[in-house]
Write a structure and sequence with these properties.
3 domains, binds magnesium ion, 3-stranded antiparallel beta sheet, Arc Repressor Mutant, subunit A, binds adenosine-5'-triphosphate, globular, Helicase, Ruva Protein, domain 3, alpha/beta, 17 helices, 10% strand, single chain, Rossmann fold, 5-stranded parallel beta sheet
Length: 404
């Protein structure tokens, strides 16, 4: 580092900031207090009140549903933390699995087994071997497990319902019913694919979260601000404006992103106080439709095809592009990133998966176009923002792969 770089770095670390603890606004942070979800936390506690008792208990299955950003994941994780804190005998294990990341039943069962015994290799067993190994491990360690399967609706739409029965059966086959479940989904539609008795057990233990109201969001933003910002650095008006903007969707994730973005804008301007104008600036940069976590979980080539689609949409300024256009743009993007393009059938599978995850939307072309073709679009967001985010994600994924 030469002297001017050092000076720059020094001035950066000395720069005043409104953030006391910025990590309290990260996507993975679980706040110790969840305004407007206290009742639901208590309901969960009632469902699981006998989890630590040694005698046999019927299998516990609870379902949490609600729209995006209504706090489903956070509620389930917070509850897991609470149980972990209470567990004095050390015979309780909280396992959180996001089915978007652990996309196959095999991965779920092997992750669970490896939580019980780290020495188990991640691959190399047949699924049946893995199941019986898990049953033996559970009986051997006598550990009560609370397994959260988040975004289970995604996995069911991808892999069907068989894996769910397999999982439920594993628990029934152990000496005691060691595993209890919390299933998290956007809504209960997925249960229609289950048999009648499983359906009714899901319906009877169901916590349905509503989207947050403006006042709920205000309380949430206030409590998160107290954790993340220095006292007195955010104005009441700024908090109200964030609550107002995010109340259209009732999405707390969007509210927290706005809060984070507004803090960044305030720091960029060297302002000691976060004002409504910083919120307005953040709003122009942040879009509620982008779920950054979802983009991060895509495979490298899914990201490349998404980037290709975005670029083509940007270039043509049309609302839709044809699949052929997307594919030719994908080949260019592969060239840019030095990647071998995948075959057509594989690209189709990627497109279908992106559509299932609502990252892209597809429709069949109507009248006025020769032949029928699939048209692709991106939900109403600024393609610029998502393009930059994607490029960064692709670069960092490539670096990780190269270092592996
Ligand atoms: N009651 C609350 N208090 C404080 N923060 C909250 C509350 N509810 C949600 N949040 C925050 O809002 C964000 C979104 O919440 P969460 O991820 O739990 O939503 P979700 O319902 O799981 O959404 P999705 O369906 O998109 O997965 C998280 O950053 C979380 O910390
Ligand atoms: Mg979630």
């Amino acid at each position: 580092m030469n002297t001017s770089d050092e000076e720059f770095f020094k001035s950066l670390i000395k720069k005043p900031t409104v953030f006391k603890n910025i990590s309290c606004l990260s996507v993975t942070y679980i706040p110790p207090y969840l305004p407007h979800r206290e009742e639901e936390l208590r309901t969960l506690a009632k469902y699981f009140k006998t989890i630590f008792e040694p005698q046999d208990e019927p299998l516990r299955k609870v379902c949490i549903t609600g729209p995006t950003g209504s706090g489903k994941t956070t509620l389930a994780k917070r509850f897991g933390q609470l149980l972990q804190n209470i567990d004095k005998q050390n015979n309780f294990l909280f396992v959180y699995i996001n089915c978007r990341i652990y996309k196959s039943p095999y991965l779920i069962v092997s992750t669970l087994a490896r939580k019980l015994n780290k020495a188990i290799p991640p691959r190399g067993y047949s699924f049946e071997e893995l199941q019986s190994l898990l049953i033996r491990l559970l009986d051997f360690y006598s550990v009560k497990v609370l397994l959260v399967l988040d975004e289970i609706d995604y996995l069911i739409s991808r892999s069907g319902t068989d894996f769910l029965y397999v999982l439920l059966r594993i628990s029934e086959m152990t000496e005691k019913q060691w595993i209890s479940y919390i299933f998290v989904a956007r809504n209960l539609n997925f249960i229609h694919q289950l048999d009648a008795s499983t359906q009714s057990s899901f319906q009877s233990n169901h916590i349905s979260l509503d989207k947050y109201s403006e006042t709920d969001l205000k309380d949430i933003i206030k409590s998160r601000s107290e954790l993340a910002f220095y006292d007195g650095t955010i104005t009441e008006d700024a908090i109200e404006l964030i609550a107002d903007i995010s109340s259209k969707s009732g999405d707390a994730r969007y509210a927290i992103e706005l809060l984070w973005g507004a803090g960044q804008c305030s720091d960029d301007e060297n302002s000691p106080i976060l004002y409504p104008d910083h919120v307005r600036k953040a709003k122009a940069l942040i879009h509620p439709e982008i779920r950054r976590e979802v983009i991060l979980t895509l495979s490298l080539h899914q990201k490349l095809i998404l980037l290709a689609t975005i670029r083509k949409l940007k270039h043509t300024k049309n609302a839709y592009i044809s699949t052929n256009d997307a594919i030719s743009s994908y080949k260019l993007v592969c060239e840019e990133y030095n990647e071998e393009p995948r075959k057509h059938t594989q690209i189709w599978t990627y497109l279908k998966e992106l559509s299932k995850q609502d990252v892209i939307s597809t429709k069949i072309s109507g009248e006025g176009m020769r032949g029928k073709t699939t048209l692709i679009s991106i939900p109403d967001i600024s393609v610029e923002t998502i393009e930059l985010f994607l490029m960064k994600a692709i670069e960092s994924q490539k670096k990780t792969i190269e270092h592996m």
